[in-house]
TrEMBL record:
It holds the Pfam family MarR_2. InterPro entries: HTH_MarR-typ, MarR/SlyA-like, WH-like_DNA-bd_sf, WH_DNA-bd_sf. Residues 1-149 form the HTH marR-type domain. This is MarR family transcriptional regulator. PANTHER family: HTH-TYPE TRANSCRIPTIONAL REPRESSOR YETL, TRANSCRIPTIONAL REGULATOR, MARR FAMILY. It comes from the Bacteria.
Length: 156
């Protein structure tokens, strides 16, 4: 007996939306990871940490990186170790809390981030940003904000 795929009409809209998010996240992340690794020897997890650092005018406490990224705290620590060994970030003791460290990009880290950001944007353009208009992007941003605000599953 021949097997066929379910169509969108046969799947509840909530299930279709969920699996669409999973599919998009997986496919786009893999695409960006391949491009960044090939062009800059920079896995997407490293780029994510660099993105948060580049977005902040001040050094970022390591604990904030753990809370901001999609990585666990131990993954963030390993990524920061790797970035530091490549001379892309520095760790400094926190002036506010002697128990913590703050992380910042080095000039080399800023340079590599700018190059990698251009790679990421050009990689995503034909399969994401060029396909969506401003209204689509704003809708996705709104969905993401709602989901992230309620990530622990608490009904408000």
């Amino acid at each position: 007996m021949a097997k066929r795929k379910l169509t969108q009409a046969e799947m509840p809209v909530a299930d279709h939306a969920f699996y669409g998010l999973v599919w998009a996240g997986t496919v786009l992340t893999e695409r960006v990871d391949r491009a960044l690794t090939k062009a800059h020897d920079l896995p997407v997890s490293w780029f994510e940490v660099m993105l948060w650092l580049a977005s902040s005018p001040d050094p970022v406490p390591a604990s904030v990186l753990g809370n901001s990224t999609m990585l666990s705290r131990s993954q963030v620590s390993r990524v920061v170790d790797a970035l530091q060994s490549r001379g892309l970030v520095t760790r400094t003791p926190s002036a506010r809390d002697a128990r913590s460290v703050e992380v910042s990009l080095t000039p080399e880290g800023h340079q590599l981030f700018e190059e990698a950001e251009a790679t990421r944007r050009s990689c995503l353009a034909p399969v994401f940003t060029d396909l969506l208009d401003q209204k689509d992007l704003e809708a996705l941003s709104t969905v993401w904000q709602k989901l992230k605000a309620n990530k622990d599953g608490q009904v408000s």
